[in-house]
Specification:
Order of helices and strands: EHEHHEHEHEEEEH
Number of domains: 1
Low-confidence stretches: none
Structural class: alpha/beta
Oligomer: single chain
CATH class: Alpha Beta
CATH superfamily: Flavodoxin domain
CATH topology: Rossmann fold
Helix content: 25-40%
Distance between the termini: 9 Å
Shape: globular
Number of helices: 6
């Protein structure tokens, strides 16, 4: 049974990227998939900053990444890149941590000016970590996501929901091929 890790890279407890990740999690609820979730913001800050890979919160997080066959990574856009807290966590992972994994990157942001953040900021880092199968991914504008009601994300743009559903479908197909 394949394991998928939902990796939330937002430093905020309430975030659009985490809401989208929650939506994807619901779509991946199948009998043949185990889904785990890791919110990087919940890791001990001192362990992250001091690169303590044996820390009480970091070591189990690294093990979650290792166990995963696929990773859905969602993060908000900050300064035309992904969050610093996500970068700090990625720096703790072994060089080939994503080898033989399928990765679906999802980024959110307030401006269409950053629609290439996945291609120019995130994918190069992910690809350097073991040559995983990194899917095209999807960038969603903040205004396309309504997460005002906890546990129920809605999309204000039907096209973006359709595109996200297609990316989830591609992820599932790639995951089945990889395992």
């Amino acid at each position: 049974m394949p394991t998928v890790l939902m990796l939330a890279g937002s430093p905020s407890a309430v975030s659009r990227s985490s809401a989208v990740l929650q939506y994807v999690h619901a779509q991946l609820t199948h009998d043949f998939i185990t889904v785990d979730t890791l919110h990087v913001r919940n890791l001990d800050a001192s362990e992250l900053l001091w690169a303590n890979s044996k820390g009480a919160t970091i070591e189990p997080a690294l093990a979650q990444v290792e166990r995963a066959d696929g990773i859905v990574l969602a993060c908000p856009t900050y300064k035309a890149a992904y969050s610093g807290i996500l970068k700090t966590f990625l720096d703790l992972l072994p060089q080939r941590a994503f080898q033989n994994k399928v990765i679906l990157p999802i980024m959110t942001g307030g401006s269409a000016a950053h629609t290439l953040v996945i291609d120019y900021a995130l994918k190069p880092v992910l690809s350097a970590m073991g040559d995983p199968r990194v899917l095209r991914g999807i960038y969603l504008l903040d205004g396309q996501i309504d997460h005002s009601q906890p546990e129920q994300v809605r999309f204000t743009d039907e096209d973006i929901k359709h595109r996200l559903d297609k990316e989830i479908e591609h992820f599932l197909q790639a995951l089945q091929v990889m395992i």
